[in-house]
Amino acid sequence: MDSHAIYLSSMLMVFLLLIDGTFGRSSTKIAINELPGICSTTLNPALCFQALTSDPRTGGADIKGLAQISIDLAKANATATASFIASVAGNATNRQLKVRYHSCAKYFNSSIGSQDGCTNAVSSGDVSGLQSQASASLDGPVSCGDSFQGPPADPAQLSNKCQSIEQLISIILAIAKLLIK
After folding, report:
1. Biggest alpha carbon–alpha carbon distance for the chain
2. What are the backbone dihedrals phi and psi of residue 150, each rounded to the nearest 5 degrees, phi first?
3. How confident is the model over 78-132, as pLDDT tens digits?
4. What are phi and psi for residue 115, nearest 5 degrees?
5. In whole angstroms, how far apart are CA 162 and each of 65, 86, 117, 145?
6. Phi, psi of 27 (to 5 degrees)
7. What is the pTM assigned to this prediction?
8. Cys-Cys with 45: which of 39, 84, 100, 160 at CB 3.0–4.6 Å?
């Protein structure tokens, strides 16, 4: 191989290594004292900090691991809320509420599917896919919460649960922004 070909091969290798940094600082461990800065860009910084520090995986996580932790937290809460919705829908006596609960169940199933898409994006290093899937996963809780803005009132206070999940998903979006850097 001549020196020009070696040079081109070397440059290609460097370029590939740089773009493989789709997860910018993915292998750098995140220090706990960095979490307030990360969380400050979320919808609820206190919830973000509490949620991330309560997970034992956070202490040794890099940014990619932190993304997965935030996805897991959002998905666990969305799954629990979907189960709650199914229970409430089954017990609802008001026809309009029953219809809303069934719609919310569909919204949440879609949201959970998008959160699975987030996991796939993290695994493959697809930052734009992560952002897209996380944004799509917001549709479920937002649409569900919006459906209860008019009467009759939601006795299960599902809107509060939706808001909490929106806040957890905002953690995924905040971390996705860091992966671009």
Report:
1. 80
2. -110, 175
3. 999 999 999 999 999 999 999 999 999 999 999 999 999 999 999 999 999 999 9
4. -70, -35
5. 25, 14, 20, 6
6. -95, 0
7. 0.83
8. 39
